[in-house]
Amino acid sequence: MRRPHHLLALLLAPVVTGCFASGGSDAASGDAKSGSRLRVALAFPPAENLSPYGADATILSRLGVTEGLTSLDANGTAAPALAASWRRDGDSTWRFTLREATFQDGTTVTPAAVAAALTRAAAAKPAPAALSGVHLKATAAGGTDVRITTDRPDPILPLRMSSPGLAVLSAKGYRQKDRVDPVGTGTGPFRLTKVTGSTAATLDRFDDYWGGRAQSSGIDVTFVADGTARAAALRTGQADLAEAIPVAQAAGLDAATRKETATTRTTSLLLNSASGPFKDAGLRAAAREAVDTAALAKGVYEGHADAGAGVYGPAVTWAEGKRERPAGRAGAGTPKGTRITLATYDNRPELPEVAQVLKQQLEKAGFDVQLKVREYSRLESDALDGAFDAFVMARNSLVDTGDPVAVLASDYTCDGGYNVAQLCDKDVDRAVATAERTADTGAREDAAMAAEAAILRTDAVVPLVHQRIITGVGSTVRGALLDPYERTLVGTGTRR
């Protein structure tokens, strides 16, 4: 039975009325010449006080607050950012030459400041996902260079430095021992000036940005976990940009404001392989066999997704031709009423519906499923601690570094910093380590696919769908930055 999506949107519209009042002096609407402020509705409230070392890192990069030494271009190649150039200086050392840039607190971006920022990131617990399995040392090397040495050869270090989790902040951002403060300490075109808990944030244009003055005078952000409310905010003119529009709301938006982007994001069912019922490989196999991924892509996502094929989806264009069939999987066991806890979050509105369908599929196979749905910031720590038997998560496979191996190391190895599946398998670790050591691009892709096959063999992860993201872009907005890595949204040319 179809749900009354449009009626629900109208009912929820008053919830966001007034939430997007601008916090800046030139808040009144106007054209680009007057420097109108942008009103942005984001799906994910800060989960870690906007620390760049966790999931909040992409909030900062999407809003143009933070930058790293490098960025990713449209082809997924490392491009200059705070570093104007770089070169390899031995098997385990790279030298990055900095451009002239200024932190948002007025201090200068120096090699010493960059080295201190990277040293702090390397010591973070847990480590940023981009540094999973890698230990680095950063030092100043003359007036313009930063020397980065790794404990072993790392051929993709320039890609790694593009991670939002390795953003460079000024010394002021690291004054507190137990947290990192991005307010007024980044280097991007927009300066974070105020954070109102998990509900809103205010950003002003940073006029001394090295890449040129932004066309918008600032950004007023509201964190709106409810996807229907985000769509309603765009439709009623309360927001100029709204991320992660639910597929159920897409038809209710004007075609000109509905932007669909193929992404490298995969929604997966992660099974806790370290404790609880899914420590048994046979029960993991039974869960995998119970899942109908085609039904999820066609039903829940209404055709705005592709059935899960692996860790990497169609947006990773080289993967399909190199994919290996997992060998040596365990035979499916018999659940016999085994009780499991299945959890997910509602910031991405399709996920609770995915979880509900999975509950039905798993119960049909003989599991007794208890479903838990919360907002992401209230689930993340429990998920990483292995508190759930199964977890439905949408993960961009290239967001951390642009390198296909990095997500495998962070999510599926014994020492991985984002290992929700709690997987620790010697064959997987060996395959990932082999891929990490491989420098040639084609050979590295081959090794990544071999590692993917080793991971899928364990049935600790069941790829469900490969997503296309729908972003709501107001009819007067120009220059929104939509990319498959989901690292960018607002830049110097974004305006209304």
Model description:
It is a single chain. It is globular, with a radius of gyration of 22 Å. The protein is of the alpha+beta class and about 500 residues long. The two termini are about 40 Å apart. The chain has helices at about 5-15, 55-60, 110-125, 155-160, 225-235, 245-250, 280-290, 295-300, 350-365, 380-385, 405-410, 425-435, 440-460; strands spanning about 40, 70, 80, 85-90, 95-100, 135-140, 145-150, 190-195, 200-205, 220-225, 240, 260-270, 305, 340-345, 370-375, 390-395, 460-475. The strands form three sheets. Strands 1, 8, 9, 10, 11, 12, 13, 14, 15, 16 and 17 form an eleven-stranded mixed β-sheet that branches. It has a four-stranded antiparallel β-sheet with strand order 4-5-7-6, covered by helices on one side. A two-stranded antiparallel ribbon has the order 2-3. α1 (about 5-15) crosses α5 and α12 (about 425-435) packs antiparallel against α13.
The largest sheet, given as strand count, sense and whether it forms a barrel, is: 11 strands, mixed
| Order of secondary-structure elements | HEHEEEEHEEHEEEHEHEHHEEHEHEHHHE
**Quaternary:** single chain
Helix content: 25-40%
Element layout with pairings:
Elements: H1 5-16, E1 38-42, H2 57-62, E2 70-72, E3 78-80, E4 83-88, E5 93-98, H3 111-123, E6 136-141, E7 145-150, H4 157-160, E8 190-196, E9 200-205, E10 218-223, H5 227-235, E11 241-242, H6 247-250, E12 258-271, H7 281-290, H8 293-300, E13 305-307, E14 339-345, H9 350-364, E15 368-374, H10 380-384, E16 390-396, H11 404-412, H12 426-437, H13 441-458, E17 461-473
Parallel strand pairs: 1-10, 1-11, 14-15, 14-16
Antiparallel strand pairs: 2-3, 4-5, 5-7, 6-7, 8-9, 9-10, 11-17, 12-16, 12-17, 13-17
Helix pairs in contact: 1-5, 11-12, 11-13, 12-13
